[in-house]
Design brief:
By secondary structure, the chain is of the alpha/beta class. It has 16 helices and 15 strands. The protein folds into 3 domains: about 250 residues, HUPs (Rossmann fold, 3-Layer(aba) Sandwich); about 120 residues, Up-down Bundle (Four Helix Bundle (Hemerythrin (Met), subunit A)); about 80 residues, no CATH class. Helix 11 packs antiparallel against helix 12. The chain starts with a strand and ends with a strand.
C-alpha cells in the first residue's frame, strides 16, 4: 500500500511502526457551529482510510479529537449569554449526529481538549525546561527559530514565513513567528503554573495524540488547510518535547470549493451537512466525495450531486434486483480471491484511489445486471457478494428494498382483524399509514407496560414476515 506523504512530497510504501498495528490521528472539529460539507469531505475521507486499513488486516487505533476550548467557542458563548460548555456540548452533539447520519464510524478514541489539560501542561513544562518555550506575563510561547526543521512540512523557508505567517502580532513575544502554547485568561481560564488561562490550539493535538497513541505515530491526517500553521507547529512542539520523530505519514485531503473558492465558515459560503441531507441521502454524499481523489479539490454543484444520486440509485437498484432474483435464502459467498476484489485492492493501495475503486463497483453492477437478465444464478451470487462486500468496505449503506404500500396492505389485511385496538377510522388507512398507526398503538402499550398487546402486535407481524426493531429513538419495521 502506497500513501502520499505531505512531508516528503512523494508516494511512500506504508510500513507501520509495529508490525500490523496502526496508530492514526485525525484533527477533529472545533465545536462552535454546524458542521458543513467541508467537514463531511474530511471525515468521510479518513473514515474510508480507517475502514480500508481494517479490511487490509491491520489492527488500527484511530483517535480523532474534539476541540472544546477555543476563542470561537468563547465568542459564541458571549453572543448567546451562556457558557463555553453549553456551546461546545450543543455543537458536539450536532456533529456526532451528523457523522452518524453520514455512516462515518466513531473513532476508537475521541478525546476532548478540556479533559487533556494535564498532559498539555506537562508538555509545556518540558518545552520550557529545554529552552524551546518561554513564559511572559502569564502567556507561554514556543521559540520557532530554535527548531531547525521548522517549515519542512509546508515547504516554506523561515524568511518567507516571517512575511506571510498567519500569526498574532504581539509586542511581548521574542519573535513574530513564536506561537502560543498557553494564553492567559482570568475570566474563562483553567489553573496552570503560569496563569489562569487556556491552551493554544496546536498544543491540544500534540497532547492528545501523545496521551492516547504514544510519542511517535504512524498516520496523522486532516484537511490541507491545517498543513500550516497547525501541523507545522504540532511537529515542532512534539519533536522538541519528545526527542523523537512525531509522525511517519502526513496525509491531507483537498478542499470542497464553491465557485473555485474553499468552502468555509469565515467566507460564509458553506452548506451544512443537515442542509445536504435534506436533499440527498448519505450514500449520495459519500459517492460524490469518494468519486474524487482525496487530495484533489471537489467543486460543489447540484449537477455533480445529482450525478452521484443517479449513480447510487444504479448501485442500489442492481443489488436489490440481484438479491430479489436469488431469493430470500441468498447468503453472500466468499469472493476475496476474485479478480474484482484484487482490482479494488490495487486501486485502494495506490494512495486510496477511490475513483478507480468505485469504477470496479460499477463494473460489478453491469455484470450483476447481465447475470440476472441471463438467469445465471452462479454469476448473480458472485457479483451480488462482491457488491455487498465492496460497498460495505467503502462505507456505503445498502438498504433492503422495502415492500410497496400495496404489498404491505395486502399482508396487513390478513391480520388487522386481530387488532381490536384499531378504530373503524384506523382500519380505513392503507399500507404505510396503517403500519404507522399500528406501531403508534404498540408504542403506547409499551409505555404503559401492556406487554400482552405489544407482544401480540410483534407476533402477528412476524407471521406475515415483517419484523419490528425497537431502539431509543424509534421503532422501525422491515421485511424478513
Amino acid at each position: 500500500m502506497k500513501l502520499f506523504n505531505t512531508f516528503s512530497n512523494t508516494l511512500e510504501e506504508f510500513k507501520p511502526i509495529n508490525a500490523n498495528k496502526v496508530t492514526m490521528y485525525v484533527c477533529g472539529p472545533t465545536v462552535y457551529d454546524y458542521p458543513h460539507l467541508g467537514h463531511a469531505r474530511c471525515y468521510i475521507t479518513w473514515d474510508m482510510l480507517y475502514r480500508y486499513l481494517k479490511f487490509s488486516g491491520y489492527d488500527v487505533t484511530y483517535c480523532r479529537n474534539i476541540t472544546d476550548v477555543d476563542d470561537k467557542i468563547l465568542k459564541k458563548a458571549k453572543e448567546e449569554n451562556t457558557t463555553a460548555e453549553v456551546i461546545s456540548g450543543r455543537y458536539y452533539e450536532i456533529f456526532a449526529q451528523s457523522m452518524k447520519k453520514l455512516n462515518v464510524l466513531k473513532p476508537d478514541i475521541e478525546p476532548f481538549a478540556t479533559k487533556t489539560l494535564g498532559e498539555m501542561i506537562s508538555i509545556i513544562k518540558d518545552l520550557i525546561a529545554k529552552g524551546y518555550a518561554y513564559e511572559v506575563q502569564g502567556d507561554v510561547y514556543f521559540r520557532v527559530k530554535k527548531f531547525s526543521d521548522y517549515g519542512k512540512l509546508s515547504k516554506q523557508p523561515i524568511e518567507d514565513l516571517v512575511a506571510g505567517a498567519r500569526v498574532e502580532a504581539s509586542s511581548i513575544k521574542e519573535d513574530v513567528l513564536d506561537f502560543a502554547l498557553w494564553k492567559k485568561d482570568e475570566q474563562f481560564g483553567y489553573p496552570s503554573p503560569w496563569s489562569k488561562g487556556r491552551p493554544g490550539w496546536h498544543i491540544e493535538c500534540s497532547a492528545m495524540s501523545r496521551k492516547y497513541l504514544g510519542k511517535q505515530i504512524d498516520i496523522h491526517a486532516g484537511g490541507a488547510d491545517l498543513i500550516f500553521p497547525h501541523h507545522e507547529n504540532e511537529i515542532a512542539q512534539s519533536e522538541c518535547a519528545n526527542g523523537c520523530k512525531f509522525v511517519n505519514y502526513w496525509l491531507h485531503n483537498g478542499f470542497v470549493t464553491i465557485n473555485k473558492e474553499k468552502m468555509s465558515k469565515s467566507l460564509k459560503n458553506f452548506v451544512t451537512i443537515d442542509d445536504m441531507l435534506a436533499n440527498y441521502d448519505s450514500n449520495t454524499i459519500r459517492l460524490f466525495i469518494l468519486t474524487n481523489h482525496y487530495r484533489m479539490p471537489v467543486e460543489f454543484s447540484s449537477e455533480a450531486l445529482d450525478g452521484a444520486k443517479a449513480g447510487w440509485k444504479r448501485i442500489q437498484t442492481s443489488v436489490n434486483a440481484v438479491v430479489k432474483f436469488l431469493g430470500s435464502s441468498f447468503s453472500p459467498i466468499d469472493v476475496m480471491q476474485t479478480e474484482e476484489i484484487q482490482l479494488f485492492k490495487e486501486a485502494m493501495d495506490d494512495d486510496l484511489n477511490t475513483s478507480k475503486a468505485i469504477a470496479v463497483i460499477f463494473d460489478c453492477v453491469t455484470k450483476a445486471n447481465k447475470a440476472v437478465s441471463e438467469t445465471n444464478t452462479q454469476a448473480a451470487a458472485k457479483y451480488a457478494s462482491i457488491l455487498l462486500k465492496l460497498t460495505d468496505v467503502m462505507g456505503f449503506n445498502i438498504e433492503k428494498e422495502k415492500l410497496s404500500s400495496e404489498e404491505l396492505q395486502s399482508r396487513l389485511a390478513a391480520i388487522t382483524y386481530d387488532f381490536d385496538f384499531l378504530s373503524s377510522e384506523d382500519k380505513k388507512l392503507q399500507g404505510y399509514e396503517l403500519m404507522d398507526k399500528i406501531i403508534e398503538y404498540r408504542n403506547i402499550a409499551r409505555k404503559e407496560k401492556n406487554w400482552a398487546i405489544a407482544d401480540k402486535v410483534r407476533n402477528s407481524l412476524d407471521s406475515i414476515s415483517i419484523v419490528l426493531k425497537d431502539s431509543k429513538e424509534a421503532t422501525i419495521w422491515e421485511e424478513k
